[in-house]
Write a structure and sequence with these properties.
The complex is a heterodimer of chains A (330) and B (158). Chain A is built from 13 helices and twelve strands. Chain A is of the alpha+beta class and 330 residues long. Among the domains of chain A are: 51 residues, Uridine Diphospho-n-acetylenolpyruvylglucosamine Reductase, domain 2 (2-Layer Sandwich), CATH 3.30.43.10; 100 residues, CO dehydrogenase flavoprotein, C-terminal domain (Enolase-like, domain 1, 2-Layer Sandwich). In chain A, helix 12 packs antiparallel against helix 13. Chain B is of the alpha+beta class. Chain B contains five helices and five strands. A five-stranded mixed β-sheet of chain B has the order 2-1-5-3-4, with helices on both faces. In chain B, strand 3 and strand 4 form a beta hairpin. The chains are: A alpha+beta (330), B alpha+beta (158).
């Protein structure tokens, strides 16, 4: 017997109506996380998958200084966009640093935003203690050992990482997420889409059941800005980040006129480094300033023995991407 | 009881119709329902690349694609790369360079290699390695795989 019913949505309103009306239904886009968790790992359940991949939410359009990206645009399609290549190098680099080409041809931008934790305890249904899967059951990652886990926005309740590379760049850029529900549309800044787990790691974002991400709006960087994404990992390619950083700087004769910085590999949500931005803005673009910015950002880290190395590695990652962006032609 | 789904699609240039449960993956549809066992089931969860096929010309993982999502679309598997009894240029290059050992990952490697040539990501060995990284080879035939792709790319440019 089939584990779920498959239905194909004909339009956005129909898709939203079908999922809103059925607590057991869920949206299916690229499927690279959803089918994995549903069919293979069997740690989530859904009685009905509403396939949204034929909806007209695919493609990239420029409106002034904003890039409006349809939620069903694939990662490869967005990485290939000429405006992204020219004006948002950090987005292109973050996209191409993620997954493999096969997965990037399948995975959508909306799905990337909502990807689930890669925590191996969350994905192993033989592990009982997982507050994300079973609220109140505990956290096996904290108890049993972890490495690819979060240190910021983390606690004894949950240290699962938000593993997206793209979202790190989008957090730095103040991207906006367009969301549709049965009543209408709303716009949420990407940095406010996610919820730090606290004692409810099962609640990952502000979306209600049946709400659909339709577009992501990415403000373009100013013409003179330089930007980049650095991902540090255990192998050169096709691996999740140990730490990463997305940076964008506008320099004026050696002084940082404006700075955007966000971190990956360390947060339970994509982590905007506002403390670093405050230190950087108006300061000279020197290694000492970059290090001070990094030191200001990593505080209140919750580490376990296997993740303690990320405090220093994340700081060095910040310093290196800032040096690269400040010194190079990016 | 969930209804079955009709899937009308083109597989290796032949129109096919299947009536399947909604949760059947493209990989299982190819292997179990169409008898196309050239596409291999490795990890079956999107990590190894053994199940790589072309969907409307783009490489994807058939283990994480539902067959129902392929309705109206075109699938190419290792069996469809060249006419019966002949080899695709990439297949021939893999043979010449001994670009495999046990062979289990090979169909996926070749489908990715065919795609990487189309994508134009073969300007250097480093670029080939980066964009082939979604295909794992436990035997470690990587050097010969890169050599085969380098040669196929050069032949294509000539």
């Amino acid at each position: 017997m089939a584990q779920f019913e498959y239905v194909r949505a004909e339009d956005v309103a129909g898709a939203v109506a079908m999922v809103s009306a059925d607590p057991g239904a869920s949206f299916l886009a690229g499927g690279t996380t959803h089918l994995d968790l549903l069919l293979k790992d069997a740690v989530i359940a859904s009685s009905r998958l509403v396939d949204i991949t034929r909806l007209p939410l695919r493609g990239v359009a420029r409106a002034g200084d904003t890039l409006r990206v349809g939620a069903l645009t694939t990662m490869e399609e967005l990485a290939a966009d000429s405006v992204v290549a020219e004006r948002l190098p950090l987005v292109r680099e973050a996209l191409l640093a993620g997954a493999s080409t096969q997965l990037r041809n399948m995975a959508t931008i909306g799905g990337n935003l909502l990807q689930r934790a890669r925590c191996r305890y969350f994905r192993d249904r033989t592990v009982a203690a997982c507050n994300k899967r079973a609220p109140g059951s505990g956290c096996a990652a904290v108890a049993l050992g972890a490495r690819m886990h979060a240190i910021l926005g983390a606690s004894e309740h949950c240290i699962a990482l938000h593993a997206s590379d793209l979202c790190v760049a989008l957090a730095a850029l103040d991207a906006i997420v367009d969301i549709q529900d049965a009543a209408g549309e709303r716009r949420v800044p990407l940095t406010e889409l996610y919820v730090v787990p606290g004692d409810r790691p099962d609640v990952e974002n502000v979306l209600q059941h049946g709400e659909l991400i339709t577009h992501v709006e990415i403000p373009l960087l100013p013409a003179g800005a330089r930007s980049g994404y650095l991902k540090v990992r255990d192998r050169t390619s096709y691996e999740f980040a140990l730490t990463s950083a997305a940076a964008a700087l506008v320099l004026d004769r050696g002084t940082i006129a404006s700075a955007r910085l966000a971190l990956g590999g360390v947060g339970t949500i994509p982590w905007r480094a506002r403390e670093a931005e405050a230190v950087l803005t108006g300061a000279p673009a020197t290694r000492e300033v970059f290090r001070a910015a990094a030191d200001a950002t990593i505080h209140d880290a919750f580490t376990v023995p296997g993740t303690a190395f990320k405090v220093e590695l994340s700081k060095r990652t910040m310093v290196r991407i800032l040096e690269t962006v400040a010194g190079g032609q990016r | 009881m969930a209804e079955k789904v009709d899937v009308d699609f083109v597989v290796n240039a032949t129109a096919r119709r299947l009536t399947l449960d909604g949760d059947v993956t493209l990989l299982d549809a190819l292997r179990e329902h169409l008898g196309l066992v050239g596409t291999k089931k490795g990890c079956d969860q999107g990590a190894c690349g053994a199940c790589t096929v072309l969907l409307d010309g783009k490489r994807v993982l058939s283990c994480l694609t539902l067959a129902a999502q392929c309705d109206g679309r075109e699938v190419t598997t290792i069996e469809g790369l060249a006419p019966e009894g002949e080899l695709h240029a990439v297949q021939a290059a893999f043979v010449r360079h001994d670009a495999f050992q046990c062979g289990y990952c090979t169909a996926g490697q070749i489908m990715s290699a065919v795609a990487i040539l189309e994508e134009g990501r073969t300007s250097s060995d480093a670029e080939i390695r980066e964009f082939m990284s979604g295909n794992l080879c436990r035997c470690g035939a990587y050097n010969n795989i890169v050599a085969a792709i380098r040669e196929a790319a050069a032949a294509r440019r000539a």
